[in-house]
Design brief:
Elements: E1 28-29, E2 37-38, H1 41-51, E3 59-66, E4 76-82, H2 88-99, E5 107-112, H3 124-134, E6 147-152, H4 161-168, E7 178-180, H5 186-190, E8 204-208, E9 214-224, E10 231-236, H6 246-258, H7 264-275, H8 295-302, H9 304-331
Parallel strand pairs: 6-7
Antiparallel strand pairs: 1-2, 3-4, 3-9, 4-10, 5-6, 5-8, 8-9
């Protein structure tokens, strides 16, 4: 005979000096930590001096799906538990680790405009870029607005910033507000009433490398206990090769490894990925290589002290690369 469930005990008001319970009054959760509830605003205010030391916003559980309509064999996905008080630049850093990117291009987080329709004339974006260049970067308000809001890269100069900036111009619009990612926290966007309750229409995208245009689509799947670090909870798919040439280039690289009798071009692709690519993998993608990824290794690198040390080293490398690039340009 199945045992009957014990009735849940009534929840008590979070104010230690109040005796009211959920049996007698509706309790309202603390909107920040969501771990305690109060019978009134007065009880919440009275309890705050003691509660504030342990009151932390819960993490967001966010799935990031790279080019979901184009990369399917296998899908490339990472699900992270993200501290709500982290700034978006730290989320960018975590995603670079989680997806194995080389951190040499610019990025943004953008809220897509559901009313935007891509131009039918493929030359229109090029004409728009030329128009912006001729006006010193000032966008025309009459042009279609692709994004409602952008959180942008605070770094003005990267190895390929010139190329990235050229491709970034159509993303800017006079009616699209922008925030710097090193001064804007996750909860400020994810809890923004303007976008809450619109999960079916609100699309947030993390785009890395405005040339290859790697779009990672965000889905907030839930909340979790607060942590100091980003934590990778799950995923699929080998990290995509840096500067491989977009989704078509990644498909061609995988095809090069699956070919029973690779052409010379396919052998060259393999050699480049294993020896010269920024995020190269000497093991290649043979067999089930395209499905391989390592969650434990990602979480080891996501520890705060290692995460920041990793980006400090990358900054030093980038500065050296920029200096080398400038010297080469002067010689030419």
């Amino acid at each position: 005979m199945a045992s009957e469930k014990s009735p849940e005990s009534p929840r008590k008001c979070g104010n230690p000096k109040c005796s009211k319970t959920s049996d007698s009054v509706a309790l309202q959760q603390c909107s920040r930590c969501r771990k305690v509830a109060y019978c009134s605003k007065d009880c919440q205010a009275a309890s705050w001096p003691g509660h504030k030391k342990q009151c932390r916003r819960q993490n967001y559980i966010v799935k990031f799906h790279l080019a979901p309509n184009d990369i399917k064999d296998p899908h490339v996905v990472r699900t992270l538990s993200c501290p709500a008080d982290a700034v978006f630049y730290h989320l960018h850093m975590a995603l670079q680790i989680a997806f194995g990117w080389g951190t040499i291009h610019s990025f943004d987080f953008a809220v897509a405009n559901p009313d935007y329709k891509p131009p039918e004339d493929m030359m229109e974006p090029m004409r728009y870029r030329m128009m912006m260049d001729s006006t010193g970067g000032r966008a025309d308000p009459s042009m279609p607005q692709e994004y409602l809001f952008r959180v942008v890269d605070p770094v003005e100069q990267t190895v390929f910033s010139g190329i990235d900036r050229v491709h970034e111009s159509p993303r800017r619009h006079p009616n699209t507000p922008e925030k710097k990612s090193d001064d804007y926290k996750l909860y400020q966007l994810f809890d923004n009433p303007k976008y809450q309750g619109q999960s079916s229409t609100t699309i947030i995208i993390y785009t890395y490398d405005f040339g290859d245009n790697w779009e990672h689509y965000l889905t907030i799947e839930g909340r979790a206990d607060a942590t100091n670090d980003f934590v990778c909870l799950g995923g699929s798919g080998h990290p995509v090769a840096e500067d491989v040439g977009g989704v078509r280039g990644w498909a061609d690289l995988k095809a090069a490894y699956r070919a029973a009798h690779p052409t010379r071009e396919q052998r060259d692709r393999r050699n480049w990925f294993e020896k010269a690519c920024r995020n190269r993998d000497p093991a290649g993608l043979a067999g089930d290589g395209a499905s391989k990824w390592n969650r434990d290794s990602i979480n080891y690198e996501l520890k705060s002290e290692r995460l920041f040390d990793h980006f400090d080293r990358l900054a030093d490398m980038t500065e050296a690369q920029m200096s080398q690039f400038e010297q080469q340009m002067r010689r030419e």
